[in-house]
């Protein structure tokens, strides 16, 4: 059995295979010439062109010569074009002459081993002698310019009878598409298509039409192949990248031009692409285990120049602390800071943290600072602060810098001296004492005591007594038996602070001074606590307290109690503003009452329910409930909402339901989804922020029958707070029944 061919291979017959082996074996020795292409007889047109092609093979390579009538061809109209190192030759005759060129032309191939001959006959006809069907060129090739690597098509159309065959000559040599690896094709139309054109394709092309009647050449047409020359440019320049420490990143660089440029990568002066490995047009740099930031340069090179583009690869990391933090300016309420980034990598923004110096509390922070200079305002005067700065990048917040301290400038005090007290040392001399202001805003240089028997006059018209930074002083030369008003202020090097609240003192020896620092604060909805400072070295035997509700100025209450520094009033009305005055009494008499202070008791739940609660049936499943708010003196606060509770007396659903969150602006509400022809109890209550008040007395209402409704709705019955248990009246009916029904105030019959 003959062996089967392996896949993709063709089995050759045995005899031809031996012939091939013989040829291969003989190829290593000399051989006589053998024609592989011989000239053919032609009939040409006077004034036209005729070409004879002859080619031979042999070892050594033979030479081709042409003979006419036994003589070597020689004429200005005869041109011999050699190819294949002289083993091929074209005899071209142009222009053809009748009779003169008609002859037998002989091709001789000669090498050292021998000589062979072949011949062809040329006939030349005048135009009027052309036989019918002689080839005609209907459309010849035209001048064409094509860009290198583009496709060029040389057109040709011919007629004749029989249809002529078309062939092509380039620069007087025959075009053989079979030797172009498919790049050059002759189309069925006769056109010559040249793909991926090369500079060698440039030349003079002729289209030749041949049939049994003769041969006709087209006019020649030149094909020019132009190499477009464009300087290199980046079509995709490298882009900067960020990478985590130890991460990987690819940098892509694409350049174009004509000719196409080579592309390489560099970092600094170091070449990253080997000279003999430079790709054309596109180069991707693959970086792995990146631990430091660097600039990478893509270089594109062609014969027309060199261009560069740089991409920055940034290794992501938290920023370092800023450095050189300095306080450059201070005012009483602001500090200006400057610093240096301290980072070579980009910083998104900065954060400034600060807090009072010497404290361990949390830092306040100013975020999103874009510059390295910033002023922080809103600081307290004459206060020392600690400041530090941190940097933020795309990874996160870096550690803060070392803290710096700065003290703001002085300002006039923004609060008055505290707990100002005064008492008489004699009938004309008083002792005044106080505590420093809470917000001195600087170093207190001293105090000014203002006093006057007429508090209606402006402060600038009061008597003034200056003292140093001490906390007490005496004021003399007072008129006996007069009540003086007194105020104290502190001052710094910048200016005066505000004066303290007015206190009064009576210039009567032995009469107690006005209680100092009198304050009122609500403890609950019914209790207010009063407090004051006990006067030093005073013989107080009683305190007298006067108070009243702000809404009822005419009804004042007076309480007398033993010496103490606080007192609590109880059983007050909730959510009520009260006003208070206090005076001390000694054996010599009652001192001056304090200025009025006030406090409001806390809110409570309402002590009365909503009033005038009514219910009306407005359908077989809906009841409208209406009310008015509780009396003003029973609300005990601001009414914030209402709730409505209801339950069926004789229906299937006997559970109690509550509708909460009815806004304070409502005075009615519709209960929907009720059972038909069913009696309900309804309650309403009011709420404050503290909670709900009592429920109203229940109101009875019956929904309408199905499909029946009385004009104006069905009235309701208000029940006593504790009604007897309802009996089965009227009998329940799922869809209702027509019965006489009288609704009236008070209990129903049968109850």
Automatic annotation (TrEMBL):
Keywords: Disulfide bond, Glycoprotein, Hydrolase, Immunoglobulin domain, Membrane, Protein phosphatase, Receptor, Repeat, Signal, Transmembrane, Transmembrane helix. Pfam families: fn3, I-set. Residues 398-418, 688-751 are annotated as: Disordered. Gene3D superfamilies: Immunoglobulins. Residues 33-123, 135-224, 232-314 form the Ig-like domain. InterPro entries: FN3_dom, FN3_sf, Ig-like_dom, Ig-like_dom_sf, Ig-like_fold, Ig_I-set, Ig_sub, Ig_sub2. It is a single-pass membrane protein. Residues 1-29 form the signal peptide. It comes from the Eukaryota. It is found in: Membrane. Its EC number is 3.1.3.48. Coiled coil: none annotated. Possible cell adhesion receptor. It possesses an intrinsic protein tyrosine phosphatase activity (PTPase) and dephosphorylates EPHA2 regulating its activity. Belongs to the protein-tyrosine phosphatase family. Receptor class 2A subfamily. This is Receptor-type tyrosine-protein phosphatase F.
